[in-house]
Amino acid sequence: MAKKKRTLDFQRLKKVSILAPLTLVQLKKVLRDIPAVSYPEDRTILRQADRPSKVFIILKGAVKLHREEAGGERIYMGELKQGQVFGADALFSHQACRTMVTTSRPSQFLLLDRKLLKKIIELLEPDQALKFLAAFGRQIQDSCDLENRRYLHHQTQSLKIEVEKQRALTQMVAAVAHEINTPLGIINTAVGIMARELAEPKEITTQRAADIAESLELIRRNVERTRDLIQDFKKVSVSQITYSRELLDISELIQEAINLIRVSLKGSKISVQFVDRLQGSQRNWIGYRRYLSQILINLLTNVERYAYPNDVGGVVEIEIGMNKTDQYHLTVRDQGLGISQENIKKIFEPYFTTGHALGGTGLGLSIVHNLVTNRLKGQVKVKSRIGKGTTFFLTFPRTIPAD
Q1: What is the third-level CATH fold of 244-403?
Q2: CATH topology classification for 3-156
Q3: This prediction's pTM
Q4: How crowded is residue 1: how many other Cβ atoms within 10 Å of its Cβ?
Q5: pLDDT tens sequence across 78-95
Q6: 244-403 matches 3-156 in CATH topology
């Protein structure tokens, strides 16, 4: 519950922009019976879609603003501090709040309803009333500008991140298409051999039978290889457009993603080793195929670009296990160039990259961090030494909470 406090510091109130036009006498007259209201840290004051009946003036502390999207994503819209106002735009427009307001530290507010605002205006001289309303207008405009700037920034960044995701998928499509050409070429050759052998009626000698049998075996193996590539790609590619939470075999999911990205890494002479330390039912994961596949694709693409650049080749080890608290721990470890201590602090920041010349956008690891923390409700850490390689440590729950 909010705590009420009967005393107001009128000298401090004079420093609040919307109350500055009032004299001390006027302030005391109109606000002497109005209590300040206190709230602890992390208390929700207004919810999105609320219709406030009061304007909130922040006397002490601060509040943070968030907007929730239809899919459940929460967007940080900024912070308001001492002397600023919230709730006014919704109050005057008779519309619902566009944001959720939560205290970011212990805070104190002065609440003004329509009746009290009308009383203040009636008490003021015409020039004072104009200044009062102008100050209110500026506060509402500043609040709206803050929200709009934040929302536009978020939408722009989301679009760039989606473009980066699609670019990674496009590169994988090209690699898979190239890889499929190999078994198809072998199948075509084997079919040609069989067609030649069977073109004319001849005696089926031991050698002819062996040639035909070998051709059939080549066709079988390469049809299976093509089928496996297409199945793995279908699962990963479909996951990029679906967000369903489902029961999955996490080991199988990881192997599918590795199989596909391995096709792309082959040209860079990079091999991927998968160490599965899960037992039986530990592989049952309630989560999102899309997000974990994207995380692995981004991490392995990052290894190719930065750990082993210029096709020098190397090994990547992916290991999955479970700790005592039913949390998965997933590590991606290379023995490549490593990351400097100066840069390791920045690698999850959007647009930070040391590889513009290598095609880096600075979004790959930012996407990883966002997906692990916000979508998988986990954590991601990194350790690295120059010349000794880099290890990413991911932990996330066995059951991901529904959005």
Answers
A1: Heat Shock Protein 90 (3.30.565)
A2: Jelly Rolls (2.60.120)
A3: 0.50
A4: 6
A5: 888 888 888 887 777 777
A6: no
